[in-house]
Amino acid sequence: EEKESRRFERKYLIIPLKPIGVYILLTGVEIKNLNSFSSINRAIDFEISRQVHLHSQGQGDSIVQETRLWEEGSQKTVSMRKKEGLSDYRYFPEPDLPEVIITKDYVDSIQNSLPELPEMKRRRYESMGLSMQDVLFLANDISVADFFDATIAKGADVKLATNWIMGDIAAYMKNEKVSINEIKLTPQELAELIASIKGGTISGKIGKEILFELIAKGGTVKGLIKEKDLVQIVDPAEIEKLVDVVLSENPKQLEQYRAGKTKLQGYFAGQVMKVSKGKANPALLNKILVEKLNAKS
Which residues cross the membrane (predicted)? Predict the structure, then answer.
């Protein structure tokens, strides 16, 4: 009776070895006593670990081409014998496969054509001062990462761009079950929106209202600001008039405030914002409001 025999040909394995950027070529060995595909898999894993460990300890020269025995009980390979040369292992060149010579220029050209890998992208985002939570959110989706990169390329503040994308934009995409490529908002307009808020042209509250329209319908920030007359009121005299109107219309609350119920300041600020349709500059409004509330009657 002829006994069935299988021969599994080893391939060269190139494994990254810490520190990053250092690679090792594992040495081929013949392993006996492999009686299942499962044992083949475990033997290969062990041999990779064994050789990587020896290399990391500076003992790479001790690894030789040899025959090793797989011990199923201990789940490891042990040395059996060493042979004289490659011919003993029946290794021979394949005559139908010509030699392939890869030049450094060719390798460099391929490397330069590769897109930015996720790990490099995460490191770049970390170098911008973003938290790990921010980094993982942005780098997890290539489309989100591209949108973010395009936004900051237009001059947007890194952290503010991150907050808008991770906050209101992400919430909209989740609710509507759409990707960032399917919304109408462009990186250019997000950058413009951030600049308009930061520069004081519009308030953050108005910015949110504009954002949702840009996401759903598209358009431009400047166009919406002009169309809806949303330019922030930054003239102190105009804001002072609005404060005076609100205080005169709420004498009871004013009396309560001056009697010690200072939490009513928020009520007055809300009323002024309501009268101004959200256009009053918040910082200037609060400054003038406090002065008026604390002024002697």
Answer: none
Q: What are φ and ψ of residue 149, in 5° steps?
A: -60, -40
Rounded CA-CA distance 50/202 in Å is 63
Q: Give the model confidence (pLDDT) of 167-186 as tens digits.
A: 999 999 999 999 999 999 99
The DSSP-derived string for 193-225 is HHHHHHTTSS-HHHHHHHHHHHHHH---HHHHH
Domains of the chain by residue range: 13-82, 118-228, 236-294
Strands 22-25 and 30-32: unpaired
Tell me which DSSP letter residue 13 carries. -
In this predicted model, what pLDDT tens digit does every residue of 233-260 receive, in sequence order? 878 898 889 899 999 999 898 888 888 8
Q: CATH number of 236-294: 3.40.30.10, 1.10.10.410, 1.20.1740.10, 3.40.50.150? A: 1.10.10.410
